[in-house]
Amino acid sequence: METMEDMETLLGQGRQAIGLIFDPDSFTENKVGAKTFDDPDFGPGAVVGTAELDGKPVTVIANDADAFNEKFPVVYAGVIGMEEAYKMAQAVYATVAADAAKPKAEKQAIVLVVDTPGNGPGKTEEIFGMNKATGAYQLALAEARIAGHPIVAMVIGRAISGAFLCHGLQADQILSLDAKFGTMIHVMPLTSISRIVKKDIEVLEKLAEGNPVFAAGPQFFYRLGGVEEIVPTIEAMRATVIAHVAEVRGRKANGEDDTLGPWGRGALGAERGGRTVRPEVIALLEKELDAVASKYLPGAA
Amino acid sequence: MALNTIEFECKSAAPAALVGKPLHFGVVGSGDLEVLMEPKALKGAVAVKVVTPVSGFDELWRRVLATFVENSKLGDVSIEINDNNATPAVVMLRLRQALSEAAA
Amino acid sequence: MSNWSALQNRSFLESNARARAVGLVDEGSFTEFVGPFDRRTSPHLEVLGEAVEFDDGIVTGIGKIGKTPVFMISQEGRFIGGAVGEVGGAKMVGALKAARAFAEKIAKDFPKAKEEEKPIVVISFETGGVRLHEANAGLLAHAEVMDQFQRCRGIVPVVSVIGSKVGCFGGMGFVAAAADVVVMSEFGRLGLTGPEVIEQEMGKEEFDSADRGLVFRTTGGRHKYIMGDCNFLVDDTIAAFRKQLAELGKTPRAKFAEFRRIGSPELVEKQLKRVALAAEMQPKDARDVWAKAGNADPAALGNAPLDDFRKAVKRLTV
User: Fold this and answer.
1) What's the number of domains chain C is made of?
2) Is-contact C133 C43, C-beta < 8 A?
3) Phi first, then psi: what are they for A71, rounded to 5°?
4) Pairwise CB contact (< 8 Å): C16 & B27
């Protein structure tokens, strides 16, 4: 049997990654809270269920790169189609519903195992609105996060553009396996960006050393605050996920929600020197509003 | 590869303070530009700052702006332009349109 | 923008971001934030030697329609296709956050404020999503905008306005759909994947991106109206959009949840019925769905004058 030390990549192996991250044999697929997913042909590219992590139940949402959605032929290789995105949203809402009466500190964690190359790019998808499906999943995650559920995303393979926005970027914290395991986080590979912005790839690579805003790879997202921590080995993944779920829970208990999620990543980006203009612009906007706000309040002339 | 910044001054023979308050005009589309004009005490001169991806046309910018300033009699103004490959004709048109905003 | 009245009858499609921002609110009421005079250009474009714009292609500010304070975000398609980078993204995020704080202040300090005195957010989309020159920062900004949308829920309504040349695609395609209300003109286009990418993915026989009619039937305002993805379909003038926004300003805030298409478990169930319909129908063309919605002659409906279309159209009820 292949051991973790032998593995060179987890790309395309979402199900195997579930086995490595969570407690052995603890994963129950297709059951989250009171909700069961009984149709095996429904959103097969999305794997949802409940596992235990260090003895505590967590909701698991992952991609299955081996699945092919017969009804929507653009959905394969980990693509998130309409069914997949809504299925993922259902798993989130079921988690929220199950803990609705529980205090913030006891809300079940959600772990996103991320390996997806994109959203369904088809004609049927556009006619019926793929944009709604991916948007629905993001709103569900944001709602769960704000309600107190710790959400940690673990990038094990591909986290590409809109699909990463859909499945990953609404988490409290994002972890990524080191790029040496073939992990990819980007909007477009640098070769495509080079073609579109009409700059030589060598020039762009050189520029990327000083400015991480356009180059592909988890290390650049780390510098922008987009990735909380780079996980150096596959063996370290489980312990790191456990530690971050605990850390997120702790921060939420301390009322430090502002250090988490997309907003928290903004602050982290500034702290790491990667997105320094963002906070200045937001502060300037608030200052300029303050100067005129009274004119727009009720009763103002 | 960085952007090219060109700064210079020009002065009409009979300058007038035509711009009473700051104004902005235009969009930096392809082959287009935006312009900011702000009143500034320059003893009748016009201070120009152009930021453009195109290099090697500094003299042309000076000539176009000098012509515009002379024709319009514009003075005591700072002009800032963000350009994206606009032709001299487009530059002239946008500057005139911007100035007509000041008059409106 | 001295001539506000002249803006009113101007084509929304042809209007730039600032004209839309100024024209959609009452005359003289617009105050711009982080505007051109602040000169917050993108440092990332500068490094690449790309032309910059003083407002980074996004106009943000506040205005009033009647008694309603309107937080405005307006994207400029002529500047790098309206794509969102670090500065423009921060302006969007900042405006949404400020709108939320403003609404909370009114709720706290003006408990007797009338509905129409409570703010709304209007976003005039014209964008393909992430700006590739600063792709990573643009992507992270998209996630922040979605987070702000969720935080605005029940506090300040967000209205998407779509009727500009570039349409609203990429990541901003789902941002627009995640708003409370979507207002479009028939020339507005809303989607996730642009036509060229669909063609590349499916082949020219399945989807010819040069076929303008097909592209509009798939993502255009009329189609989105039939699908319920757009709540209101208005004429292509700034005045027509403004009139719709004025009505929304007077609409009780509690009613905005009813306009939504996504954002709750119930709405997900509703959308899944449509996905099942998509699987069953495998539509070759949006017209197949129009027919399914009960429109006997979809081709004629697509070509009818807009007033006739609005009177005759049957919207999908699945």
Assistant:
1) 1
2) no
3) -75, -25
4) yes
Burial of C9 per CB tally in 10 Å (0-12, 13-18, 19+) = exposed
Q: Is residue C87 part of a domain?
A: yes
pTM of the model: 0.97
Q: Alpha-carbon distance B48 to B11, whole Å?
A: 11
DSSP C256: G
Environment class of B13 (CB within 10 Å of its CB; exposed 0-12, middle 13-18, buried 19+): exposed
Chain B residues with a Cβ under 8 Å from any Cβ in chain C: 1-3, 22, 24, 27-30, 32, 34, 36, 38, 51-53, 82-85, 101, 104
Residue C44 lies in a domain: yes
Rounded to the nearest angstrom, the minimum Cα separation between A89 and chain C is 8
Beta-carbon separation of B27 and C48 below 8 A: no
Domain at C53, CATH number: 3.90.226.10
Suggest the residue from A69, A71, A127, A211 to mutate for an interface test with chain C (most C CBs closer than 10 A): A127
Fold of B4-103: Ribosomal Protein S5; domain 2 (3.30.230)
**Where is B77: in which H helix or E strand?**
strand B77-84
For B31-67, write each residue's pLDDT tens digit: 999 999 999 999 999 999 999 999 999 999 999 999 9
Express each pLDDT in A239-273 by its tens digit: 999 999 999 999 999 999 999 999 999 999 999 99
Look at the block and give the residue holding tokens 């987070």.
Answer: C147
Tokens of C24: 């959609």
What does the angle CA C142 – CA C120 – CA C110 come to, to the nearest 5 degrees?
Answer: 125
C135 → closest Cβ in A146, A214, A296 = A214
The residue ranges of every structural domain in chain A are 4-276
- The answer as to CATH 3.90.226.10 being correct for domain A4-276 is yes
Contact assignment for C47 to B53 by CB distance below 8 Å: no
Which residues on chain C are in Cβ contact (under 8 Å) with B101? 2
Domain spans in chain B, listed from the N-terminal domain onward: 4-103
Question: Within a domain: residue C292?
Answer: no
Chain-chain contact of A136 with C268 (C-beta, under 8 angstroms): yes
In this prediction, the answer to ipTM > 0.95 reads yes
- What is the distance in angstroms between the Cα of B23 and the nearest Cα belonging to chain C? 9
Whether C220 is covered by a domain: the verdict is no
> Which residue of C53, C75, C76, C164 is the best one to mutate when testing the B interface, meaning the one whose CB has the most B CBs within 10 A?
C53
Domain span at residue C28 reads 4-190+229-262
